[in-house]
Amino acid sequence: MKKFSLLLSVVFAIIGCNCQKKIVEEPKKETTSNVKEYNLPKIEYVANTRGFYEKITIENQSVWVTNNREDKTNGEETKIPDDVNKELSSYLNSVNLDKLATYKDPTQKRFYDGAAIANLKIISNGKEYQTVDFDHGNPPLEIQNLVNKITSFGTKR
Hints:
Layout: H1 2-25, H2 34-37, E1 42-48, E2 53-59, E3 62-66, E4 76-79, H3 82-93, E5 117-124, E6 127-130, E7 134-135, H4 144-151
Antiparallel strand pairs: 1-2, 1-5, 2-3, 3-4, 5-6, 5-7
């Protein structure tokens, strides 16, 4: 009986070690790098004047557009296609978020109601980055491609 108990203990030890070995080997599976590459942070674009309001929010490969200041739901959700998400990601990667607040606005039409006041906010890894106010339709050159792509989701008049 002692020999049987010893043999049974050895078998369980071998099986237990083999199971742990499989668990350690499983994370070595190849993961795709594309998933993280196109994961965008939360982006909020707001343009407004006394008679105009547009808010575009992008998060988790979805976009919400609203023209109602009182709308707490941010409008209706629309999914962003993968190719557009990839394009947005490439524009965003070309922007230095730490310098976002220092980018100069090329025009000041908003000072005399010649353009809506626009602002871009990016929330990445729990940190908020925000531009200075600029004219809607005429963003700073450093973020022009990104802002133009974001505003392309806006409502068409």
